[in-house]
């Protein structure tokens, strides 16, 4: 049987290729620098550098200078440090192997570059330079080699560690940076084309060696499934069955196999898999859970799939575990789970089972259904409805922004709102959102008071009036990014939750309630957890406290950095296994 330690040892031996790389680069540099003027390799190089010098423009000078700064020693070291720190800081899923790969690639490339310049002396091109010439050889280009190691390394991490169609765009942009840097260095008269080619070869060779050692499949996250030795079935779970609900587009075959193996290693040898469809958004989950022995439901999909599964199992006592692989993954974000699918599953199963609230929503033409994130009408629902499925597949959640731009000028809605059976209030609003959780993508807190275990629902009426109203609303929401979770006096004045709280000059009005009833003067678009529902003129919602049991690393009210103060009403809601 092959062990991971043995495999790691074999991969580590590849580091011996680095001295061979350095020797090859020195030999290549000596060969290039020894060629006399007039040989086939030299004359075209002089023509290239002369052509660049003859066609310089102020605009191109500025662009090439910016690219040179990006690939300078200071720029490379600064960006590398930021990226390495970002990879190491997350407390639950620090990506140590990725950090070593990226930082090590930059360092190794620089070491090889310095060794080559000590052995090779090649003069700079015979054109007026735009930069001061450093005391090193023209071969190879240090700027190009460093940019390949850094930005090529980032492209490799984006490609191998992230999911979603947008990774192709991000990786392509990062890969283009070294080529752009190479053109800028020739334009500025600092390098021959063969110097740039030497920098590319040095950087690519470094990435190949370092990637073979540190980027083997599944080693990105320290403490993740692939960083631990293979486990036999965990005791106490061998008799339990796991039902896995898989969205076929969000969870591809590779991820499905990884989830299958991970669950087996953690004691769930008996697995039943079911795929979602338009007609059955949670597959055959109700039938699978009807029999005895189901100890876990794993949801591989986005918020719509989670909603459908939660609707099926809420109140049954069967716990859920999330594998976020949708467009928004808002429930996973609000529960502070990693957005990497396998990391989220491991983090959750390493904790306990906690109860969280769900909402129930219904209306005219809208059958009663549960939701875990948010439901609403107006601007947000129209945005969800009109988002192109093709763009959503290619871009992910930014596709919603393109749709939202088309609805900025939509007229407001006339409505009445009643909370907890109180008096009806007449309002105008562009958007109505009822939430079980409060944060959107990027950590934007639309509903600052919302908590998945509060036993209440939060309501916001969004009604900016004119440019000033939009600016006030945008400024207020943006300020929440810098003080998440803060309960400032302007956001939460001393008033009963049922009385409403206005902020941003009245652009946003908040309510907190057990039951919310909204009646619109006209038929409006409606959505539930990101899924478009039938249009209608009524939207009713109520909370079902603690109905859904879910695997989490910590209590839902506790932030990752420090536990959230809990009221006496929630002290009894302790994890149950």
Provide a concise account of the structure shown:
The chain has helices spanning about 5-10, 15-35, 45-55, 60-70, 75-90, 95-120, 140-160, 165-185, 195-215, 255-265, 285-290, 305-315, 330-335, 340-350, 380-385, 390-395, 400-405, 465-480, and strands at about 240-245, 270-275, 295-300, 320-325, 350-365, 365-370, 375-380, 415-420, 425-430, 430-435, 455-460, 500-505, 510-515, 515-530, 530-550.
Please provide a written account of the structure.
The N terminus and C terminus are likely disordered. It is built from 18 helices and 15 strands. The strands form two sheets. Strands 5, 6, 7, 8, 9, 10, 11, 12, 13, 14 and 15 form an eleven-stranded antiparallel β-sheet that branches. A four-stranded parallel β-sheet has the order 2-1-3-4, sandwiched between helices. α10 links the parallel β1 and β2. The chain is an alpha+beta fold. α2 packs parallel to α6 and α7 runs parallel beside α9. Helices cover 42% and strands 20% of the residues.
Structural topology:
Layout: H1 4-12, H2 17-34, H3 43-54, H4 58-70, H5 73-88, H6 96-119, H7 142-161, H8 166-187, H9 193-214, E1 241-246, H10 253-265, E2 270-275, H11 285-290, E3 294-301, H12 303-313, E4 320-324, H13 330-334, H14 341-349, E5 352-363, E6 366-371, E7 374-378, H15 379-386, H16 389-395, H17 398-406, E8 413-419, E9 425-429, E10 431-435, E11 457-462, H18 466-482, E12 501-503, E13 508-513, E14 515-528, E15 531-552
Parallel strand pairs: 1-2, 1-3, 3-4
Antiparallel strand pairs: 5-6, 5-15, 7-10, 7-14, 8-9, 8-14, 10-11, 11-13, 12-13, 14-15
Helix pairs in contact: 2-6, 2-9, 4-8, 5-6, 5-7, 6-7, 6-9, 7-8, 7-9, 8-9, 10-14, 15-17
């Amino acid at each position: 049987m092959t062990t991971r330690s043995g495999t790691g040892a074999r991969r580590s031996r590849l580091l011996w290729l680095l001295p061979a790389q350095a020797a090859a680069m020195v030999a290549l540099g000596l060969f290039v620098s020894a060629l006399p003027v007039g040989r086939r390799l030299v004359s075209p190089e002089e023509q290239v550098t002369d052509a660049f010098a003859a066609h310089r423009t102020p605009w191109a000078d500025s662009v090439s200078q910016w690219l040179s700064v990006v690939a300078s020693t200071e720029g490379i070291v600064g960006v590398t440090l930021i990226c390495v720190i970002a990879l190491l800081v997350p407390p639950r899923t620090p990506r140590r192997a990725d950090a070593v790969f990226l930082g090590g690639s930059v360092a190794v490339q620089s070491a090889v570059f310095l060794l080559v310049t000590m052995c090779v002396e090649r003069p700079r091109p015979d054109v007026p330079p735009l930069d001061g010439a450093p005391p090193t050889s023209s071969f190879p280009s240090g700027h190009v080699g460093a940019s390949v190691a850094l930005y090529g390394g980032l492209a490799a991490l984006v490609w191998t560690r992230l999911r979603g169609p947008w990774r192709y765009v991000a990786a392509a942009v990062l890969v283009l940076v070294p080529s752009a840097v190479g053109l800028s260095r020739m334009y500025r008269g600092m390098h021959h084309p063969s110097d740039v080619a030497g920098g590319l070869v040095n950087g690519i060779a470094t990435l190949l060696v370092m990637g073979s050692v540190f980027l083997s499949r599944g080693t990105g996250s320290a403490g993740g499934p692939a960083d631990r030795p293979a486990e036999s079935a965990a005791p106490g779970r061998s008799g339990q069955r796991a039902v896995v609900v898989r969205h076929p587009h969000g969870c591809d075959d590779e991820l499905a196999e990884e989830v299958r193996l991970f669950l087996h290693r953690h004691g769930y040898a008996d697995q039943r898999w079911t795929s979602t469809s338009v007609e059955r958004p949670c597959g055959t989950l109700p039938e699978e859970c009807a029999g005895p022995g189901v100890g876990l439901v794993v949801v591989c999909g986005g918020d719509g799939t989670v909603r459908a599964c939660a609707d099926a199992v809420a109140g049954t006592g069967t716990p859920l575990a999330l594998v976020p692989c949708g467009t928004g993954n808002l429930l996973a974000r609000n529960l502070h789970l990693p957005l990497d699918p396998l990391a989220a599953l491991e983090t959750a199963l390493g904790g306990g089972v906690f109860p969280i609230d769900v909402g129930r929503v219904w209306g005219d033409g809208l059958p009663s259904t549960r939701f875990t994130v948010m439901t609403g009408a107006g601007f947000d629902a129209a945005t969800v409805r009109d988002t192109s499925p093709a763009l959503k597949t290619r871009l992910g959640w930014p596709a919603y922004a393109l749709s939202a731009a088309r609805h900025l000028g939509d007229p407001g809605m006339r409505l009445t709102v009643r909370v907890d059976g109180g008096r009806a209030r007449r309002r105008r609003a562009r958007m109505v959102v009822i939430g079980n959780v409060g944060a959107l993508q990027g950590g934007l807190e639309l509903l600052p008071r919302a908590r998945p275990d509060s036993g209440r629902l939060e309501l916001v009426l969004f009604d900016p009036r004119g440019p000033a109203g939009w600016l006030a609303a945008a400024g207020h929401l943006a300020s929440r990014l810098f003080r998440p979770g803060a309960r400032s006096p302007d956001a939460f004045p001393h008033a009963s939750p049922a009385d409403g709280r206005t902020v941003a000059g009245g652009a946003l009005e908040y309510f907190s309630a057990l039951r919310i009833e909204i009646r619109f003067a006209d038929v409006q678009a409606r959505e539930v957890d990101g899924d478009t529902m039938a249009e209608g003129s009524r939207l009713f919602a109520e909370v079902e406290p603690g109905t859904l049991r879910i695997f989490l690393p910590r209590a839902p009210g506790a932030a990752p950095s420090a536990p959230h103060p809990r009221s006496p009403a929630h002290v009894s809601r302790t994890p149950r296994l």
